[in-house]
Design a protein that fits this description.
2 domains; 5-stranded parallel sheet; 12 helices; 7-stranded mixed sheet; alpha/beta; 18% strand; globular
Amino acid sequence: MKKHLIHVVAVLLWLAAACAAAQPAGQAPAAAASPGVTAERILFGQSAALGGPAANLGTEMRRGIVAAFDEVNRAGGVGGRRLELRSYDDRYEPELAIENTRRLIDDDRVFALIGAVGTPTSAATEPIARAAAVPFIAPYSGAEFLRDPALGHVVNVRASYFEETETIVARLIGDLGIARIAVLYQDDSFGRSGLAGVRRALERRGLELVGAGTYMRNTTAVKTALLGLEREKPEAIIVIGAYQPSAVFTQWARKLGIGAHIVNISFVGSDALAASVNDAGNNVYVSQVMPFPEGDDLPLLSQYRQALVASDGGARPSYGSLEGYVAGRLTAAVLARAGNPPTREGFLSALGDTGTFDIGGFILKYGRRDNSGSHQVYLTVIHDGAVVPTDRLAR
């Protein structure tokens, strides 16, 4: 209880300092608030996979955002306004995401969108947000198009897929001396983004991909692709996909005696993958864009776990909810500098003008032509059903 009270006081002091820094003496407030802002609340909207085969990704992202918003609200909100989140399920399908996004902007009149899950859904909805001048905060995607400096309304938090695949390729070669690398990728904009990252990383080293297999989004039809890849005798297979197809792929690979190292990028949802793949998951690697949720090397991590328990006592720490929590904390920090009442324009200006945000030791950096946020990539491995951090790949 004492530690919890200390943390609440810390959040109150943090918000007070941010508001003071954002409102110099004599500065006039904005004339009118943006949609979604009242005297009591600021409303955010989310379209994400809350059902279907990718449900764990959206559910965990939402849980983390809500935990951060609840934490801020217990400390008095931002400028006395509660932060609220309205979420709709798009089942990781672009058509539903478009419908949800229009509903959130036109009918619910949210202040901003936050926590979209996936590249194909973000590709379908980002232009809608852009046309309406609505901030598009923390999409759960590392696609390069979202890092275009011209997209001033997009606020990334996670490292890019190019940065993840660069790290993976560098470690496969540096740690294991592996040069024969293949890819299994989801046949859409997400999978092709990851594939491009792998090709780019290999080309930097004078190497070529030895094989590429595909599967369709929201299916687990991966066996044919696996058999095709095995004919090329890869030493490692990088999986650009979600947890269910990756789990099936890994189980078939082990059943057939395929010994290639399997490495997933972060979008897979490592906790869900570990739970789905059973014993076949041992020594499967996953790159991550957040620090280990149960670690202690950053103040962020204990703050996150306290907030998670206070918001949802039955929740377990996960990479997905940690990413959502970071997104929620960043949002509150920017809002505290965005004027009173806050506006969408003021929010985006405050982001670029402030530049660097220290979220419990996890650093996010922005600028007028830089919406990237973090560039951190970490490595984990599945061992006995648990996802644990690792310093290097091992045979």
